[in-house]
Design a protein that fits this description.
Blueprint lengths: L1 H12 L5 E6 L5 E6 L6 E8 L11 H9 L8 H13 L3 E6 L3 E8 L4 H13 L5 H19 L2 H13 L12 H5 L3 H11 L5 E7 L3 H12 L23 E8 L4 E8 L8 H12 L9 H4 L4 E7 L6 E8 L5 H17 L4 H18 L3 H14 L3 H5 L4 H5 L2 H11 L6 E7 L4 H4 L13
Parallel strand pairs: 2-6, 7-11
Antiparallel strand pairs: 1-2, 3-5, 3-6, 4-5, 8-10, 8-11, 9-10
Helix pairs in contact: 1-13, 2-5, 2-8, 4-9, 10-13, 10-17, 12-17
Length: about 450
Amino acid sequence: MRRATLLVAALLIAAPAWGVTIEELPNGARLVAIQSPSTYASGFAVLVDADPSDEGYLPGLRALLARASLSGVEGTDPRQVLERLQAVSLIGGQVTTFADDDAMVMGVSGPPEIAENALGILSDALLRPSFTQPALDAAVRETIDDAERQGGDRFYSLLSQVRGVLHPVVPATSPVGTVGGLRATTVEDLQAAHKRLMVGSRVVCVAVGPGPESEMLDSLRSVAAPLPPGEAKPPATPTWEPASPIWRTHVTEDHEGRLALLLMAFGVPNTGSDAWPAVEMLREMLGGPAGRLTRSPRLLQYAPTVQVFLIPRTRYSELVILAATPMAWRLEALRLEVFDCLEELAAEPLARPEVEAARRRLLGGYALRHQPVLGRAIEVGRTVMSGGDVEAAAHHPLEGLRQVTAEETQAIARSYLGAERAALAVALPASPALDELAPPTATEPAAEGT
């Protein structure tokens, strides 16, 4: 324990001095170069802004596009493409692609020696991918694995339902789509999506590494400058404000197992906004190791497991509470206890020891979690897309957590975690026995003399 504490302290004290250079090209592409001399690693990320409000949005199409764009290059032998990907892997590098409700993301990270291959991989994916039926078939198989894994996960299943309630523009499906929709995708669909999305006004390129910022910026220009400008998109709104009360409940009865699940989601200010540190503090105070929900004796009598998650996005961020109970008939009591805990946190003055303990846990977690350079590059890219403070995100993002106050944390609780702003989903066991759905009936006392 002492060794872990010393490690966290060392990371906090010796946080790298991040140098940051930001540039917007004439075609609208935005570049960020972040120098960290003390970091022996490089990360390069391309984020393509493509949210569910876009015309022509199809869940899963961007996940296919990211994978297929890396699989082939116009006029290049497929073996050469594979060799370049393998060259990154052989020296400890990693190629990452995914899509969520913010963007399509392609990234490469590893030792600084990956830079040339990484930039070539990302440049070809943006500028001259070759979409073939075999590459599409392979991308469909991989993405279907993701879709089935998420669709079979009760948390993702319930979250998909409530997200469509919190944010009507977000389809009530996983961002990786449905199996049927993925299989119906054609090469022509990928080509049209690439033409629409891979334009300067939608692209953010980020480089993080020990090299000089000017050199990293030159490298990013070579990737993004040839892109067509495209139609400018308005910046994402950093803070999400619900227009009206949105209370709504979904009930499903299709999962295996013996636990009933209650999921409650609240729209909160988005990552990149000034309020985000208070949102993170709120999550820690509710769901951290000593959180009010995770350690509440009142809740534990109903639910042996209560978890609190943040789903950080540049749009559509949520704070999610998930509780599991073997007593389905107590779901309503469980719901009311959760709301009572939220109301208490919003109304009663917060004790300084509780606030400072949560702050210490958050600071330590950030120091450990933000060492990977690709994660930092993606976080900064999201901040650029959201119109947030890029320099604050690029530097070690601890200052906001150091300064956030108990009053600011409570203000978020009051504004966003009221019962009238909750979207709920409930999952019951698929074929529960009657005595699992209702409380035990009282046994009549035996009559005297019998």
